[in-house]
Specification:
Helix content of chain A: under 10%
Radius of gyration of chain B: 14 Å
Number of helices of chain B: 0
Oligomer: heterodimer
Structural class of chain B: mainly beta
Shape of chain B: globular
Shape of chain A: globular
Radius of gyration of chain A: 13 Å
Strand content of chain B: over 45%
Number of helices of chain A: 0
Largest interface: A-B, 21 and 17 residues
Order of helices and strands of chain A: EEEEEEEEEE
């Protein structure tokens, strides 16, 4: 079964840049689009990146997404960190049967 | 504007059934699928499957067959998730979510279903 693996947690200081990885277990992660969702405590998830590197209207350009085929990974990079960015972040893609697959989530602490 | 508004929290006893609603507005309901996602307490997101809002045909992810039923009432632009024979492990927040080409996934606010005797 196709799986997406994320680090459990990352932390960084305000104003810095952090990158969260999402590694595919098999196949090529570049074969299907990757999305990233932000979930603040007690709230529903919201989309911050879709189709690998697209930002919905209203999401600041501090958020960016990329794919690295050599490591079979997707990455979410947040620059100029703010305390409001503290949240759980989930990557999501699809397996070969178009079944949705979520990563386990990464808790971002901005301290 | 686009909205997905879900029904309120539910407290049910084991063995009972629950029906969660997701009312859509601001777009044509019968285009693109409606997805359902589960999040158990303190856990990650788990895709349950989707329903074709044009045909009403559901597709269930592994682990969500049998007791879980997706349905629609297109006359009121609403999707439903029904869970029967509830178990304690069904306690979770259930989200509806729909894809938009210029946005990605938009999510409902979630419905907490608590199963407890």
């Amino acid at each position: 079964n196709f799986m997406l693996t994320q680090p459990h947690s990352v932390s960084e200081s305000p104003g810095k840049t952090v990158t969260i990885s999402c590694t595919g277990s098999s196949g090529s992660i570049a074969s299907n689009y990757v999305q990233w969702y932000q979930q603040r405590p007690g709230s529903a998830p919201t989309t911050v990146i879709y189709e690998d590197n697209q930002r919905p209207s209203g999401v600041p350009d501090r958020f960016s997404g990329s794919i690295d085929s050599s490591s079979n990974s997707a990455s979410l990079t947040i620059s100029g960190l703010k305390t409001e960015d503290e949240a759980d972040y989930y990557c999501q893609s699809y397996d070969s049967s178009n079944i949705w697959v979520f990563g386990g989530g990464t808790k971002l602490t901005v301290l | 504007q686009v909205q997905l508004v879900q029904s309120g929290s539910e407290l049910k006893k084991p063995g009972a059934s629950v029906k969660v609603s997701c009312k859509a507005s601001g777009y044509t309901f019968t285009s693109y699928a409606m997805n359902w996602v589960r999040q158990a307490p303190g856990q990650g997101l788990e895709w349950m499957g989707w329903i074709n809002t044009n045909t009403g045909n559901p597709t269930y992810a592994q682990g969500f067959t049998g007791r879980f039923v997706f349905s629609l009432d297109t006359s009121v632009s609403t999707a439903y998730l029904q869970i029967s024979s509830l178990k304690a492990e069904d306690t979770a927040v259930y989200y509806c979510a729909r894809w938009f080409d210029d946005w990605g996934l938009r999510w409902g606010q979630g419905t907490l279903v608590t199963v407890s005797s």
